[in-house]
Every structure is written in C-alpha cells, then in structure tokens.
Design brief:
alpha+beta, Beta Polymerase, domain 2, 387 residues, two-stranded antiparallel sheet, 7-stranded mixed beta sheet
Length: 387
Amino acid sequence: MQVYLVGGAVRDELLGLKPQERDWVVVGATPEQLVHAGYRAVGREFPVFLHPETHEEYALARLERKVAPGYRGFVTEFSPAVTLEEDLRRRDLTINAMARAPDGRLIDPYGGRADLDARRLRHVSPAFAEDPVRILRVARFAARYAGLGFTIAPETLALMRRMVAEGEASALVSERVWRELERALCEAAPQRAFEVLRDCGALGVVLPELQARPDLEHALAALRAAAEAQSGAAVRWAALLARLPGQEIEALCQRLRVPGDYRELALLSARLRARLCAGAAGARHPATDPHGLLELFEAADAFRRPQRFAAWMEVLVADAHGRDPHAAQASVDAARALAAQLTGAFAAAAAVRLKPPELQSARGPERAALLRRQRLRALSVASGNPV
C-alpha cells in the first residue's frame, strides 16, 4: 500500500500558497485494509476514508467510466491494481493532476508543473468532456488565479465550447450549478468565472436571464467592485443581479435553489433600486424627504433586519461601478454619498425609543403610530427637511 498527497495541496504548495486542505490517494489497497487500519468509510459513490487521527480524506485509486449523460453518469472502478497515473489521468486540469510521494518526490505525468509555470489551465485528457461540472470548475479556477495571470489553454476552451454545443452543460443539475457558482462568488476575481462561462457559451445555459441582458458588462463590473470591497458572497450575488427585473431574479433563484438570504438580498436590492430611481425623478428625492426615507426603510424591513439593510448599502455602491467608465468615479462618489446619507438617516431613526410613560399609555396600533411619528421627527432633523 502506497499513500500519496494529491491535487490542490500539491498545486498550492508549488504556487507558494498555503493549502486549504490535503487530500490523499491510496494505491494498492482494499477498503477492508483501510477499515482494519482504523480509517472510517465516508464515501457514497466510491471508497473515501477519514484518517483516524487527522480526519483528512484518503481515497482509493480509481477509474471512472462514462455510461450516461451528465456528471452523474459514471461508473467508478477501484481495485489494488489501479495505478497512481491512472487515477491522476481522470482529473480535470493538469495542475490538479500532480502527486507528492512520501519521500517528497513530485509525480507529474501530465505536465502540471509546466502549466503552473506558464500560468495555464489545461485539461488532462479527452475524458474532461465527459463531466460538464468541469466547465464550472475551470471557470472557478480562472476566478481564483486571475490575479496570478492564469489563462485557459485554447484547446481547453475549445473543448468546453464543444461540450456546450453538444448539450452536456444542459445535463447539469441545479444544486451542483449553484454549489460551483457560490464557490466562484467567493474567489478573488469572481467576475472572471462568469466571463469564462460567457466565452464558452455555458452562461446562456446556467444563467440565461443574465446572458440575455444588454448590460451584462455592467453586472460583471458591479460584481468585481463588490469583490474588491471584500463584500460577502450574498452581496456579490445581489450586485451581479441588481439590474434584473424582480420576476427574473425570483425565477433564477428558484431554479438554482439559491439559499434564502441570497435570494432575499438580490430581490430587495433590485426592488429598492427601482424605488430610488423612480423617486429621483420626482419633486423630492426619497433620500432627502423624511416620509420617503421612512417608507424606504420600512420597505427594506430595515428596523427588524439592519444587517440586511447594511448589505444593501454595499450593493448600492457596487452597482455604481458598472456605469460609463468616463463617469465612473463621479457615479461611485455619488453612490457612496447616498449610502452614507441613508446609513446616517437610518441610524437616527433606529435610535428612537419610546419612553416608559409612552409605552404604558399606548398599545398595539397606537404604539406603532407613535413610534412612526417620532421616527419621522428624527428623520426630519437628520435630513434637514421639516415633516
């Protein structure tokens, strides 16, 4: 039995990065041998075991055979006869198909080290085309390593385009699409992932609502701005979708089974952006009118969910980055000023508390009306406009 460190840990070590996790491949062993040695079986589709002390994953060397469309259409074969090179050959990219022997020797049968040096994402073998999830994974790696100058090998991009044309991307299931998109959102340059999906044709399959928008470049710029501001993944998602109609956001999130906090912030951002734009065309902007401010905060449910309101402020600023580059800084400055104004006004309204005598004399609707009047007075002072 031989044990090798494989995949991401080897890749990141060669890039001078700290590995996020370590995975191991076991060659020449059976499941029974690992169980007897104290490992705990956790794999459903193929034998994966947790080390009894480190709890790191150890997988038996295996082969995969395509038997049906989609990423689930595989039969896994494993035995002590499967070699390390055969196991590495089934992996997606050459930079993920390297191993480190116990003596420290690098095992690199498919040129991963050379591709790392060339900052190139290249598929290992034609078997790449058998799993459409790999399109999403390449997009995610492009987002992760964009700052290091990585590009996709022309032959790999051509293969991804062919997979989309042949309908492989249509076999992706919603849960897996969202899992990979969420991971991409958390990368350093998430907009790069969506650019890759657009360039290979997959964006129109997994996110047709976004692909169809004439302001797609605006959406990608807003996503980039949210990432550069170190905003969380939910804010990044909302910034990407901020210009979509609410019904399209709802349909998209339902189809991909997007978590509720992501969906709610995206819908809120789109709805309140429309309210601000409509109000700006009126006689009094909602950001300076106490009544408009209070209605805006109530529409945002800000008094009950102040953290989500703060997240919307981040979306508001990120969305300003997607406008005309010649007026970009002016737009961003205006958005930041508006966010600061709204944040300050909200703080003033949220600080209002009814006094004990008022709490005793008012009940139910009367108490709510009294609290609302006092919030209006606070907003009048904060905005400099009389109620």
